Amino acid sequence: EAQVTQNPRYLITVTGKKLTVTCSQNMNHEYMSWYRQDPGLGLRQIYYSMNVEVTDKGDVPEGYKVSRKEKRNFPLILESPSPNQTSLYFCASSFSAGGQETQYFGPGTRLLVL
Amino acid sequence: GENVEQHPSTLSVQEGDSAVIKCTYSDSASNYFPWYKQELGKRPQLIIDIRSNVGEKKDQRIAVTLNKTAKHFSLHITETQPEDSAVYFCAASLSDYKLSFGAGTTVTVRA
Lengths: 114, 111
Fold this sequence. Notes:
The complex is a heterodimer.
Chain A: E1 4-7, E2 10-13, E3 19-25, E4 31-38, E5 42-51, E6 54-57, E7 65-66, E8 76-78, E9 87-94, E10 104-105, E11 109-113
Parallel strand pairs in A: 2-11
Antiparallel strand pairs in A: 1-3, 3-8, 4-5, 4-9, 5-6, 7-8, 9-10, 9-11
Chain B: E1 4-7, E2 10-14, E3 19-25, E4 32-38, E5 45-51, E6 56-59, E7 62-67, E8 72-77, E9 86-92, E10 100-101, E11 105-110
């Protein structure tokens, strides 16, 4: 089944404790992206990747890191989480140009930073 | 970058009535305008999209219209049903890689 998966689905952590949210897709998509969803703010892009080893900042990249060592995986890293990073995170992928075609979203990761 | 504003933030309609959500965008170079639907607790999913060379697109009970001069586009849902209750996001893009979303509209269809 074609899908985008994320892990973990729920995470409670404390300020400053490094964490990684994994994202994987099995559709051989070149483009992958991370978004955060907050009430009243919609979906805001954190980082995106056009292909392996090619990443770029979205609109809200501060406090986040990403890597794209393999085509199928695009982990989101919070080196020192803070309470303002409490949010619902979505990974998405598309065939090649995510800004011009359907993006397929993962199930979401709900993060609470205490 | 692109700025997308979406109105209203909440919309309650009687089953069978129509629902209209409007979005405005800031950059006249934007050329792709998708709409995503997010049911409660689920992931966003594309329901319809339109490109700047088209003024209107329909898919069964859903239609999208685009006014490039005024820089706004709208989602129209006719004959609303309970399963149309969800959060709807508009988005706009002027590049291959970045998509800017509106804040979302929570639609409730009353039985």
